[in-house]
Here is the input.
Amino acid sequence: MNNSAKRTLKYLSLAVFGMFFFSFALVPLYDVFCEVTGLNGKISQSEEGTSYESNTGRDLTIQFVSHNAEQMPWVFKPSEKIMKVKTGKYSNATFFVKNNTDKPMTARAVPSVAPSNANEYLKKLECFCFEEQFLAPGEEALLPVRFIFDSNMPESINNVALSYTIFDITNYNDMEMAHHDGR
Amino acid sequence: MSSVIESHHDDHHHGPAKGLMRWLLTTNHKDIGTLYLWFSFAMFLIGGAMAMVIRAELFQPGMQIVEPEFYNQMLTLHGLIMVFGAVMPAFVGLANWLVPMMVGAPDMALPRLNNLSFWLLPFAFGILLSSLFMEGGAPNFGWTFYAPLSTTYAPPSVTFFIFSVHIMGASSIMGSINVIVTIMNMRAPGMDLMKMPLFVWSWLITAYLLIAVMPVLAGAVTMMLMDIHFGTSFFNAAGGGDPVLFQHIFWFFGHPEVYIMILPAFGIVSHIIETFSRKQLFGYSSMVWAMLSIAILSFVVWAHHMFTVGMPLAAELFFMWATMLIAVPTGVKVFNWVATMFKGSITYETPMLFAISFVVLFTIGGFSGLMLSIVPADFQYHDTYFVVAHFHYVLVPGSIFSIMAAVYYWIPKWTGNMYDERMGRLHFWLSFVGVNVTFFPQHWIGLAGMPRRYPDYALQFADWNMVSTAGAFLFGASQILFLFIVLKTVMGGKKATPQVWEGARGLEWSVESPAPYHTFSTPPKVN
Ligand code: HEM
Ligand SMILES: [Cu+2]
Here is the structure.
């Protein structure tokens, strides 16, 4: 094999390894992309200190939806299924959870917003989805969400569904969880 | 130095070694090409038998023959085997046989790597097929293995599936490295890039695509493996991951992959149409540019497989337009093929019949692709039989017909014998009728709303499903005839001349038929 063939071989092998690592780089890139664009219903905690309050808000209907991931035995449901709110005003909602098993369990709720373009106008100040939830056997709780819709939200959006899926993460060990920041 | 040259020279008087060891240890590109082609044929028959199980179950509504769980396994293995076991190895086999001869090189650049990349395949597919006998059965999550179906809900055999995908991937990566190094460094003097035969061009581009995306596939299955066994959550929402991410990564591989399965076909068909039209190919350089632009565009259209996952409007529009844009270079190619035939003195030998029907039926598949690229229409068509009809039109009378055309076209060069022309034509017509009867009605039942990947269906789809199954069995049976024709040609037949076809041009036709075990030990002159 001559030298130029060796050189070709070298850069092709590099390309193979490069693309393999690129496939892993897609994971953080994807998260960054979703966060920057607010796509995929991924919600980040709103920055402290920015004010989205205004007096020129309009009416908006919010639906709360709850799902249990497969094999998640907890009771999990919104206290109110539908709320009328105004954009530019803070609102509070709660979700009821109960650990109806006889074991202590840890859970995480993963949020999603539809339509997805409402997402960038939804700011959450407080959300149980930012943290893990621990409940002792039989324990119950009311989990709060405090949020506001930016009044710049397009007129075409009159209905927003805010959905949470609750997952059992009791058996995830902490080391592994540490690699994934909650949203 | 001189001793090196001498021993090298000596080699060329040796024929192949005898017996089984010849095939196990061979580093000869022609032997390896033959191995690839036979392997691919075996996989084609196995994958085809699975298709027969699927179609038999769908002959009538209701559950008749197999359990739904087994149906899912058949569907998954059929897709995986046809894509990775039949179509891709067939093209690699053709590349092995033809690329060195077409560029005037004595062999592939890395002969031992070549041996390894072939012999990995039987292991990969042995592992995949053995999963049928494992507890919980074979993979059942579809050839696209979407997470979490393939992670959280997968049968235990998924680990073997992952392993086998890794091996297949390694094999194709090695194969493509070999092709590129050969083409870039071993062309006969005087063969500039823009003088290369189009099959060589098509493979050069395909090999680059493979190198770019096979590692991404390997990455995807590695992430699955880690999610399943090491507690990570790449695709698991509970741990902060995202199943939609899987689809992005998969289709980032998957769309270029579909072009990997069609670009070599473009090359083959260009040669055959040129030969049997007895004219120079119309628009050689536009053919090259069209393939290059298709390859580049194929990296920015992947999300057209995911229009319904809930993307923002801007992304839907971007992927829709990028997808439609691919139809332009594809159209250029179809135009050039037709222009080559225009006013040619055409004869209709079997390879030409397959090539012409490739042009027509592949174009139908391209058009249904265009319909699918329209976002609002795709909301309706997605995951229906319309998609099944689309990709079978581009893959069966597309890729597979081109492979059959190539076999008929070059088999006289490989074996020194002409195939039986009447039987070849019979095989063509049976396949042609079979393929259309099978897949054309699937457009209609798809538009009428029949979802894909179910073993049962609503009563209103019964008639066309019955027709489709009849066509499938006709197509399947006619491939037994193909096997027979190939075997008969290998064993004997009318002797072929070196040029074989009156209109054939290119270095491979300048050597005897059958091509000697070693060709172009001294580079030929190209003008
Ligand atoms: C003009 C060219 C093409 C266009 C515009 C096109 C467009 C599309 C679109 C939009 C889909 C997604 C449909 C859906 O799932 O709703 C699709 C699926 C598919 N296409 Fe094409 N396509 C083209 C050519 C090809 C070629 C050349 C091949 C392969 C040789 C191919 C193979 C496939 C496959 C395998 C699928 C289905 C994958 C699956 O979901 O299992 N397409 N195509
Ligand atoms: Cu695609």
